[in-house]
Amino acid sequence: xxxxxxxxxxxxxxxxxxxxxxxxxxxxxxxxxxxxxxxxxxxxxxxxxxxxxxxxxxxxxxxxxxxxxxxxxxxxxxxxxxxxxxxxxxxxxxxxxxxxxxxxxxxxxxxxxxxxxxxxxxxxxxxxxxxxxxxxxxxxxxxxxxxxxxxxxxxxxxxxxxxxxxxxxxxxxxxxxxxxxxxxxxxxxxxxxxxxxxxxxxxxxxxxxxxxxxxxxxxxxxxxxxxxxxxxxxxxxxxxxxxxxxxxxxxxxxxxxxxxxxxxxxxxxxxxxxxxxxxxxxxxxxxxxxxxxxxxxxxxxxxxxxxxxxxxxxxxxxxxxxxxxxxxxxxxxxxxxxxxxxxxxxxxxxxxxxxxxxxxxxxxxxxxxxxxxxxxxxxxxxxxxxxxxxxxxxxxxxxxxxxxxxxxxxxxxxxxxxxxxxxxxxxxxxxxxxxxxxx
Length: 439
Prior knowledge:
Strand order of the largest sheet: 13-10-12-11-15-16-14
Number of helices: 15
Strand content: 15-25%
Helix content: 25-40%
Number of domains: 3
Low-confidence stretches: none
CATH architecture of the largest domain: 2-Layer Sandwich
Shape: globular
CATH class of the largest domain: Alpha Beta
Oligomer: single chain
Mean pLDDT: 90
Largest sheet: 7 strands, antiparallel
Radius of gyration: 23 Å
CATH topology of the largest domain: Alpha-Beta Plaits
Distance between the termini: 35 Å
């Protein structure tokens, strides 16, 4: 019978052999194992989710990704795919020794196809880099978010990120025309032609959007671009008594429609050393960007200034100065938005709510002594009660796996598991994410 010490020795030998094989594929400098070098890869952006890894591997080509996946599959070692690591639900970090497959070196960025208004980009390209690249050709990318300098194309596709331009351009899924993906068995499928309408069977690319790295490794994407909007942009901050009042501002010229609670505006103002931008204090505020100044009630407390975006984008930074908040990215039907926000603000602790108004996407942040699971039960319980979704932008990850049972039927979960097993029968791709065991 093999002793525990002998098993540990066998495990160490296998791990060392795998690391040597990985180094042969990507180069020894692209396989990280020292604790100080892997620290930024094993803890997520919130600091709440972390684990350990056998190694961080940084391939530079799709062929290297293919070989790394094949080696890990043959060794029976699971993989966590990682982009900018800006997620909030622990879905992009290792938990039980998985190899971290960092795709930040996949920075392919093809010339813009100006005839079709499309571009092909590698999974490691950041949103900011893509935006700067396509703007030089008179286009824009339809997805924008505060973490644009770190968030990558691959990561935002894997979580179907939304951001501040959803009202004008739709979420990430709307931008994806095709993908290049490495499957769990090392097979590469590539659909990067950018055909606008293709009815020849299943749209395999869309299967991987929002899959959180559980079905395959996204290495490149063919993306639809938006026209670069010229002319003056009007940015208005409006004080309101309920978030839904801002929905009246929706229209074809509106490119962003955000809301934030007074607690958010107050903490940002204090952090930036500024006065509140509005004349008075209000329970909530709506931030709208439009090519035409919206028609407002003459008595409305509103400010027009393009610099107002700073108050919205500094919320996360301002909150971090007060501690590590419990973060929840959720969505509720617009008809229930006011009711949900009002109830969530009554929870214990300091509650800060902001989000993308047009789609009912709420970012709930709670500072206080209460543990994560207790707060999660309260916040996500309210989401379920109001007929919402527990994951609107950042996915399920490990944080919300058990809540998937409250928002999906047994038949849906069974179908999802069959797809997972068909594409990843050994379960090596991000095994801790989404597919929690049945209760």
